[in-house]
């Protein structure tokens, strides 16, 4: 099969790899229908996380189950499945508590136990604990929104849930990438009365509005803080979604939070300093992390199939898998919000 | 009147101060029945927070209302009142949301607007937003438990509430000072099934058990982490109360938290580094800060008057106000958990 391998900074290649096969009783092999490139894939792509040796990449995909191990019970060949971005056993105490990203037997894609997602096929263990099947094979038009449940929509949902968004809230979303935009959608679905998106890119502003943003602020840093305080009569936001992971984005998130608010964070932290004094003085909480998309998948899948949400709109480019390298370039240069790959 | 003034490290003195009088329509003057020394008073006492100039000290007291301003409506002369450790207006958005410690017009005791608590009388503004009266003047035996509602019991309660303790939880309490002990009591009241207190001091261990601790661990640091993990079959605690505020206590708190848990923190942070990577990877939240004791006072007062809780047990020494300097020494040397002062 063909699969994407990252060799180093700015060097991803589609290569021939061994066809995957069932090794264990809990395994599944999935024929990929669509996969995509994640903002977090750009960290190694940009050289900010070093690539020690070439490895398969990609952790978001949907597809058709091709083959299963002898003990797999919840999916069968022919099923259309969504794969969350982490493989989890589904049975350990952390999985049972709904935090599958902390699974005691967690497996990452592109490792010796599971193929990378940006390829033609993916073999993975713990199929029952990981994959979620649709009731029937969905119309192709729904593929982008189902694919978004692999990561970005579940992650945006986790940001809003971690920030404890509730009906009537004023919510600020820091970050206008695919996750931030899904955070806008999530906050809106949770009944937030006002959803303020920080964005200075016109196409992203437009999508934020489609997803339910009531206000768009193009300011950054101190100016963004001042603008939010002006919007909220000096009080600040009831909940803040931090969807970037940089020092500046975290600072802004705390700056705009009102006393007693929670910052829900889902951006992988890079150089972040937590302002513990502000947290103490104003009782602003910090909560979040690697999103347990598996926990949210059943409900969000039902919402997508019912036409209630359409997170697939974050994909503003669809290209053949053969052009995966161009997809990375487009996302790196911010010409695309998120790139969908078709094998 | 006589009141306690801190002059510098290890130098507190009982001095003559002007008798307080009503200045504004929202003021009250309270004749102090009992006050006490706080763990946070030890920071300036030990010279860890510099004392720039002599100032009245103390922020926990109960007493009888002596006089009120023309617009005070909720307390009247002769009422027995509990004063939370911060003066709050009761009307700003933060007070209305139950975060009175972030009041937009917050006033500290021992400032030019309110007297220190360790004295014979205290004048304060915003009496309606701050003081809570008992239905009738209580029996003297209840004074310690009512005084505990000024700070330590409300703060312990806030730690448990910030950590989102729920029925059936396994809760670890880091810190065996008066606040930590009250945190044990709070977690127990909230229905925690297992309350693990970290303590190596026999009298504190005993009180922790009286307050509902099911397990006492005398280990510290990595050994404490290992002991908690052994108790919880490698999973960790559902909720952790961080009631100290040092780097080591915060590290231990995160080390023993299970994935998806929340660390509720109420110790004023000194040199604390927040392990953002752990928070992200295991979805461990951090939530808390200066406790809005005012918000909890009505319910906790009802519990004390009904004999449901007796947080006053944290006072293991009662001395005349004249001996306040000895009280500081006793607490500094950890000979006393918490010292009650009678004017």
From TrEMBL, chains A, B:
The beginning of the lineage is: Bacteria, Bacillati, Actinomycetota, Actinomycetes, Propionibacteriales
So which domain of life are we looking at? Bacteria
The UniProt keyword set, sorted, is: Metal-binding, Oxidoreductase, Zinc
GO MF, one example: zinc ion binding
* Co-factor requirement: Zn(2+)
Stated name of the protein: IMP dehydrogenase
Per UniProt, residues of the Alcohol dehydrogenase-like N-terminal domain are: 24-128
Keyword Zinc part of the UniProt annotation:
yes
Q: Per its UniProt record, what InterPro entries does this chain match?
A: ADH-like_C, ADH-like_N, ADH_Zn_CS, GroES-like_sf, NAD(P)-bd_dom_sf
């Amino acid at each position: 099969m063909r699969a994407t391998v990252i060799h180093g900074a700015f060097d991803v290649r589609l290569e021939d790899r061994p066809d995957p096969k069932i090794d264990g009783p809990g395994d599944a092999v999935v024929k990929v229908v669509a996969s995509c490139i994640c903002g977090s894939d750009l960290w190694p792509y940009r050289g900010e996380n070093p690539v020690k040796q070439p490895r398969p990449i990609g952790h978001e995909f949907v597809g058709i189950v091709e083959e299963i191990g002898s003990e797999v019970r919840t999916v069968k060949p022919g099923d259309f499945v969504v794969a969350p971005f982490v493989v989890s056993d589904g049975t350990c105490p952390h999985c049972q508590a709904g935090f599958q990203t902390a699974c005691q037997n967690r497996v990452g894609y592109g490792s010796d136990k599971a193929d990378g997602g940006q390829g033609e096929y993916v073999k993975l263990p713990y199929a029952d604990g990981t994959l979620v099947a649709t009731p029937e094979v969905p119309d192709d038009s729904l593929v982008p929104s189902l694919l978004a449940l692999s990561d970005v929509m579940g992650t945006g949902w986790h940001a809003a849930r971690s920030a404890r968004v509730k009906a009537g809230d004023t919510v600020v979303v820091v970050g206008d990438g695919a996750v931030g935009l899904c955070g806008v959608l999530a906050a809106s679905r949770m009944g937030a009365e006002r959803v303020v998106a920080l964005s200075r890119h016109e196409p992203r502003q437009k999508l934020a509005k489609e997803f339910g943003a009531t206000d768009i602020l193009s300011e950054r840093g101190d100016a963004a803080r001042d603008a939010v305080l002006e919007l909220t009569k000096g009080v600040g936001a009831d909940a803040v979604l931090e969807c970037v992971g940089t020092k500046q984005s975290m600072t802004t998130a705390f700056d705009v939070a009102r006393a007693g608010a929670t910052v829900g964070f889902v951006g992988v932290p890079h150089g972040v300093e937590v302002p513990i004094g502000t947290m103490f003085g104003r009782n602003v909480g910090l909560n979040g992390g690697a999103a347990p998309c598996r926990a949210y998948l059943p409900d969000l899948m039902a919402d997508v199939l019912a036409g209630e949400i359409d997170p697939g709109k974050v994909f503003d480019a669809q290209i053949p898998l053969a052009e995966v390298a161009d997809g990375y370039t487009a996302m790196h240069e911010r010409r695309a919000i998120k790139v969908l790959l078709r094998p």
